[in-house]
Design brief:
This protein has about 190 residues and is α+β, with helices and mostly antiparallel strands. It has one domain: PvuII Endonuclease, Chain A, CATH 3.40.210.30. About 25% of the residues lie in helices and about 25% in strands. It is built from three helices and ten strands. The strands form two sheets. It has a seven-stranded mixed beta sheet. A hairpin with a 2-residue loop joins strand 9 and strand 10. It is globular and about 50 Å long. The termini are far apart. The C terminus is likely disordered.
Length: about 190
């Protein structure tokens, strides 16, 4: 897995946010595999709410967010209403977070949060835009990273160190085994 963004693919863009979007989505398309089954992921069409990638093999879906410098406690996201609706749907996505260093176009950290951790409770509603704003009344959201337990983060890259594919797939299976067992116990009336 390469940890350098190909900055040549974003030369035609003027906006820094558009450049980063193109660079990080391009990197994910080339380098990331599905943590559930190991297959190559595919990209959804642009502007799909809370969904950037999917696995053609196992049908898992993924939302990608990128952040420069440190990962921090929260990440700014889009429309609050769309996010909550998507997370409450029967096919809510898993969450990819990519942390990059813009000076050398390198990936510092990249991890996936399985969908049973990517829930409405980690979404913070922002204040509506003011009446004088171009999109007056629009309400955005933040993803509260600090509320996701460490066990809910499966790293592909941690502090620039690439994890093995087998370790990532194994970590995913363990998390889903635990979640399945917990759900069975809850349905049967037992507490874990």
């Amino acid at each position: 897995m390469q940890t350098i963004l190909n900055n040549q693919i974003a030369n035609k863009y003027k906006s820094n946010s558009q450049k980063i979007r193109v660079l990080t989505e391009g990197w994910a398309r080339r380098e990331v595999f599905c943590p559930a089954c190991g297959s190559v992921i595919s990209e959804f069409e642009n502007n799909r709410p809370v969904a950037d990638f999917f696995c053609p093999s196992c049908k898992e879906e993924y939302e990608l967010k990128s952040k420069k410098d440190s990962i921090g406690n929260k990440i700014v996201d889009g429309a609050y209403k769309n996010m909550i609706e998507r997370l409450q749907s029967n096919n809510n996505p898993n969450f990819f977070l990519l942390n990059y260093d813009i000076k050398n176009y390198s990936i510092q950290n990249f991890f996936v949060v399985p969908k049973h951790f990517f829930v409405p409770e980690i979404i913070e509603r922002r204040k509506p835009l003011s009446d004088t704003a171009k999109r007056a009344g629009w309400v955005g959201c933040n993803i509260l990273l600090k509320t996701i337990p460490q066990t809910g983060k499966i790293f592909y890259i941690k502090n620039q160190k690439v994890e093995s594919k087998s370790k990532i797939l194994d970590s995913w299976k363990k998390l889903y085994f635990y979640e399945s067992k917990k759900n069975l116990c809850l349905r049967a009336g037992y507490l874990m």
